[in-house]
Request: fold
Amino acid sequence: MSNGRLARVTRQLWAPWRLEYIKQADEQPGCVFCDAAAGEDDETLVVHRGELAFVLLNRFPYSSGHLMVASYRHVGEFGGLTDEEALEVHRLAQGGIGALAQVYGPQGYNLGWNLGRIAGAGIVDHVHLHLVPRWAGDTNFMPVLADVKVLPEHLTETRRRVTEAWPGGVNES
Ligand SMILES: [Zn+2]
Reply:
């Protein structure tokens, strides 16, 4: 592989982890996830609640429908999640994929954990799983510093649609 080709490949590697919350989290008191867990769903953009974990929209999304899944419990260490929490977070990610498939029909998904600020985590003390729908070419048309304004759909509308499309019904738990 030539250097030129390598450079192109490298550029296509996706790093949404650095996009969200990094500045904002520093400026906000408290914990976004704990606040969301305790708040009103339509204000905090929670789309689904499970028993031990819940799903919310990223306020600074990489693409429409960028979801995050977190335990209700304020856990800063990945290894600190219980088996039950770790399982439910991933089950909720499955539900999120089901809902996003219905609403947006994306061509793929990225799921990932950012652990530590160097890895791009904006909120380092409450671990969370990113679920990002992907489309061919989205790294090209989305600016590196994604801004809510470039997204075609308002977040509250996204929240409504994802919530309603959640497999098995609307916030049944
Ligand atoms: Zn928290």
Summary: Strands lie at 46-49, 53-57, 67-71, 108-113, 128-134. Residues 22 and 122 are 4 Å apart (CA to CA). The longest helix spans residues 83-103. The two ends are 51 Å apart (CA to CA).
